[in-house]
Design goal:
It contains five helices and two strands. Helices cover 42% and strands 8% of the residues.
Length: 153
């Protein structure tokens, strides 16, 4: 089961989809119904407001602390062919050349464009920082306890 919602849990609603508070509420509702929550995030979406990589990381951690998902995955934004985002980034000269990135790296695990409000290195490293924080040594103690506590079908 997954909840489709905002891709960036920051102070602005990403893509006008679902707000921070609604996402937290939905997550808690599904958990109370007995569902295991896996939260998937997209990091690096161009923001209408100026927000640094550090502020984004802080916002992701704040959301994760409040929503309390059982597991997470943080991927980088990928400007896919045929999307409005790709067209805009190409016009701005921010899409990295395919001879440098290559189609095989268009899987969310690699930076494929130059972000406006952070460095390419920050775009590449920040998702891993969030995942390392979430999957710290203490999480390995909590995971089996949550698994045992889940209702079995």
């Amino acid at each position: 089961m997954r909840i489709s919602g905002g891709e960036m849990p920051t102070r602005e609603a990403s893509l006008g989809s679902v707000s921070f508070h609604v996402m937290v509420g939905l997550t808690k509702t599904w958990r109370q119904a007995g569902f295991f929550i896996h939260a998937m995030f997209i990091f690096g979406y161009p923001s209408a407001i100026k927000i640094s990589a550090k502020e984004r990381v802080t916002a992701f951690k704040k959301f994760i602390r409040r929503a309390k998902p059982d597991s997470i995955q943080v991927l980088r934004l990928v400007p896919l062919i045929g999307t409005v985002l790709r067209e805009r980034l190409e016009k701005e000269g921010r899409v990295l050349p395919l001879d440098i990135v290559g189609w095989k790296n268009y899987d969310g695990n690699f930076a494929c464009f130059r972000p406006a409000d952070m460095t390419i290195r920050e775009l590449q490293e920040s998702p891993a920082e969030i995942m390392r924080w979430f999957y710290s040594w203490t999480s390995w103690i909590k995971l089996p306890l949550r698994t045992i506590a889940m209702p079995l079908d």
